[in-house]
Amino acid sequence: MRQVIIRILLLLFLPVSMWAEDSPNAKQAKQMFDRTYQMVFGDQGCTLHYDVNLIGLYKTNGTIWYKGKMSKFIEKRYCAWNDGSIYHVVDYKKKTVTAHQAQSDNKDKYSSNFKFDPSNYNYHVESTDEGFLITLKLKKGCKGMKIIKALIDKKTRAPISLKIKVAFFWANIKISNFKSGNIDNNIFVFPKNQYKTYTFIDKRNE
Questions:
Q1: Whole-angstrom Cα distance, residue 87 to residue 164?
Q2: 190 pLDDT exceeds 50?
Q3: Which of 27, 71, 82, 206 could pair covalently with 87 via S-S, beta carbons 3.0-4.6 A apart?
Q4: Which phi and psi (to 5°) does residue 202 adopt?
């Protein structure tokens, strides 16, 4: 879940006829999505604060950094560093450091539910007083999040909030303090000397 918190954006329920894959609205929505996606996951990197409510299952908030395949997040109980090869997650309460292969789904119990392929969705955008509302709906026969609703800033195209439907539950994500660019690679290096007293758990072969 934490590794995927921002890999999406968009809005609401409209008649099927409005969702034609080659319609002008769909093309515009896809272009807007691509621009914001690159602001988050492009080579320049980004950082943002998030507040997550996975309805009935999970609540958290923290700060996350992205740059290409690398990431880092800090929360009250957990923090993690992903240098693109190894994913280290720290549990402050248990005083453990667990290492996974960066691409392993085992590193997070929710991550398999939040797989995202932009080509698996139909797109639509609508202008509101708060910003642009863009919706992605999963195409028939495809696997992934069912509906993705997002609010993005009209001027900067920065993400403001997300609402994601997975199976029968919703995840709500509020985004603030978004900054794209000038992210140093050293941010993603795990500071092992800070956790010498923690128990190390190696799950890189799982």
A1: 25
A2: yes
A3: 82
A4: -100, 110
pTM: 0.80
Task: Specify whether the CB–CB gap between 87 and 101 falls below 8 A.
Answer: yes
Residue 4 scores a pLDDT above 70 = no
> In what helix (H) or strand (E) does residue 35 lie, and over which residues does it extend?
helix 24-41
pLDDT, one tens digit per residue, over 57-90 is 788 899 999 998 999 999 999 999 999 999 999 9
Q: Which run of H or of E encompasses 177?
A: strand 169-180
Query: Got the DSSP string for 39-107?
Result: HHHSTT-EEEEEEEEETTTEEEEEEEEEETTEEEEEESSEEEEE-SSEEEEEETTTTEEEEEETT-GGG
